[in-house]
Each structure stands twice: as structure tokens, then as C-alpha cells.
Amino acid sequence: MTINLIDTIGVETGMHKYDDAFVTLCEKERTKVNIISNYNGKDVTLLLHNYYHGSILKRICFLFYDFFRLLIYEIKNNDQYYIYQSFGFRLIDIFFYIPLIFNSKSYLLIHDLFELNARNKSDGLRPVKKILYKKIKRYICHSKLVKNDLEEITTYKSHKIILVPHFEYTYTTDYDNNNIPLPVKSVINSQLINILFFGQVSKTKGVDILLEAFPLLNENVNVIIAGVDKSDILLKYTQNKRLHFISRYIQDEELNFLFSSCDIVVMPYREIYQSGVLETVIHFQKPVIMSSVKSFREYKLRYPSFGECYYPNTPESLANCINNFNLNKNYYNQADLCKYNKEHSIKILLQQL
């Protein structure tokens, strides 16, 4: 079996880690994977352009050029499987989703469906997007919430929806200390408890809840917020010796440094389907404090030693959980790790394609 994993976002948001792990895990099962994305990885068979930078005309030209390249590639290799990754519906996805309608070996892997779920009716293009989703017959998702929303959108029993847990990450956690910029090194204080918020800085991810909780935290707590801040949320707040912002894309070795050096990762999300950040936390085996949204509650119930959930989702509740967090507890016990590795095996997906 040969699988082509198509990722138009790639290195723009760190999805290359997901792609590379997919390849590594499939290779262990003697399944070949070709990556089609916008970064120069060793397994990238077809290199796409980055559609997120440059002039609009240039981006449109690259989009059409890559679409026809990919179409020709699929025609030549029509005996192989194709998995397209989706992170919320974007207009450029329309071009890449067209082959999904006609190729019986193509699947749409949905990571995020906020734009089309029943709780979001503000998007004027929602009816058009729903029609396209109904035309696509085969899906893969990592969350029951995504599956439920897909079933509501598609309605047809002929749709095939494969539900599989987000598989484990496999990349190295090593880093060269000489490659870590001083401004990144300086946010870690070995004399304090280092709390890390990592990923996209947004209200959906609850970063404002963490910032409002900060004045309520004990003096021995040091907070680091690392990730792209497209909404300029952090501009409203002032950094100090116990509150640090790295508001940009975090490079691979910087990620490894931050996760290796922190004591706790905090995820005060308001809503989530499934989280690559949570899988990263588990990869580094760092205790995690999560809000009590449904997906996180399910994780806490299945793997209780991985961290704690707090309720309700308020700054006061979050501050109380951080201040009373027991770092001496036995996190990531062997029973939970074995259960997690078994339930997140890539075999579950390969057997259902």
C-alpha cells in the first residue's frame, strides 16, 4: 500500500511534525508514505508552494500551478491512496478537494471543523461549503465531535467516516543549546515553576483566561506564552519578570527547549476538537492542566495520570488549579502510557482504509 499525505499548510503552522510522524509510524507497518507539502523534508515527493506569503497575484498563480501538478500526479498514480488534510475550510481548499469527489481512494482528514459545525452560523459561505462536504464521500477524523458534526452536515449514510485517535508523535526531543536564541532561553527561570502555554494565541485557546489568572498566581510561578498572535491579544498585556511572550512561530529546536524546560503545560481552551499540542505534551511527558471541555475530559478519564482538568473555565479556577498543582505526583504511569500507545497506533487507521 502507498499513501500520499497532502498538507497545504505544512511548515506554516508546524504540521510537518504530524506529517513526519505519519511517515515513521507507517514505515514500521511496511506502508510507504509520500508527503505532498510545502517544506523540504526527506519524504516530500511533490513540493508545493507556500500560499500564505507574497502578493495575491503570486499566490493565486502558485495555487493554480500546484493544483494542476497535483492533478497530473494523481492521474499517473491512480492506484495509490490519497489523504488530504483539512484545518477548517479555506477557499483555497476548494481546488484541492475536487479530486476527492471522484477518486475512490481519496480521503479528507479533518483536524478542525469549527467553521461548519452547528454552533457557527455566521459564515455566509457555509451553505456552499456544506454542499462540497456532502459531495466528498470519505473522511478521516481524530475526534468524536468532528465525526458527529460531519454526520450532521453530510446526512447521507453512504459517507464513510473513519474515526481514529490522533496517533503518537515520534520526532526527537533533542536540541542544541547553542541554537536557542538568548531571548528564548531567558524566559525559563529554574528557580520558579515554569508554566507553558504553546500554540496559536487566540481566545478560542483561552489565552486571555490565563492572562487574567496571572495576577492570582503564587509568586513562585513563571508563565511563558509562545506562539503566533494573529489577533494581537498580547499587545493588551505587559510582560514582567514572571510573564513572558514569544509571539511568533516557534522553530523546532526552540519547541524542544521550551517543552523540555517547562514544568507544566496549560491548555485553557474554550473549545477544541482534537489537539496536536496535547499530543506534543504527551510526547514530552509533561504534566498538563486542561480546561474541562469535552475532549479534554475524555482524555483525563482515559489517562488520569497525564494531568488535571479544572472547572469551571474561569481565571479563578485556573489559578487555583495551578497554585495547588502537585508536581511530586507520579505523572505518566506505565499503565496509562501502554494504554495510550495501544489506542493511538497507526494500525487502527491502516486497517480501515
In words, what does this structure look like?
The chain starts with a strand and ends with a helix. It contains 13 helices and 13 strands. With 353 residues, it is of the alpha/beta class. Helix 7 packs across helix 11 (315-323). The strands form 2 sheets. The chain has a 7-stranded parallel beta sheet with strand order 3-2-1-4-5-6-7, with helices on both faces. It has helices at residues 16-28, 56-76, 93-102, 126-135, 144-154, 182-185, 207-213, 252-261, 276-284, 294-302, 315-323, 334-343, 347-350, and strands at residues 2-6, 32-37, 44-47, 81-87, 106-112, 138-141, 160-163, 193-198, 221-226, 243-246, 264-267, 288-291, 307-310.
Topology:
Elements: E1 2-6, H1 16-28, E2 32-37, E3 44-47, H2 56-76, E4 81-87, H3 93-102, E5 106-112, H4 126-135, E6 138-141, H5 144-154, E7 160-163, H6 182-185, E8 193-198, H7 207-213, E9 221-226, E10 243-246, H8 252-261, E11 264-267, H9 276-284, E12 288-291, H10 294-302, E13 307-310, H11 315-323, H12 334-343, H13 347-350
Parallel strand pairs: 1-2, 1-4, 2-3, 4-5, 5-6, 6-7, 8-9, 8-11, 9-10, 11-12, 12-13
Summarize the structure.
The chain has 13 helices and 13 strands. It is of the alpha/beta class and 353 residues long.
Task: Spell out the key features of this protein.
single chain, 353 residues, alpha/beta, seven-stranded parallel β-sheet, six-stranded parallel β-sheet, 13 strands, 18% strand
Q: Enumerate the strands of the largest sheet in spatial order, edge to edge or round the barrel.
A: 3-2-1-4-5-6-7
Please state roughly what percent of the residues sit in beta strands, choosing from under 5%, 5-15%, 15-25%, 25-35%, 35-45% or over 45%: 15-25%
Number of helices: 13
Structural class: alpha/beta
Radius of gyration: 21 Å
- Count the beta strands: 13
Beginning-to-end CA distance, first to last residue: 10 Å
In round numbers, the mean pLDDT is 88
Helical coverage, percent range:
25-40%
Oligomer: single chain
**Which outline best applies?**
globular
Order of helices and strands: EHEEHEHEHEHEHEHEEHEHEHEHHH
Poorly predicted ranges:
none
Q: Largest sheet, if any?
A: 7 strands, parallel
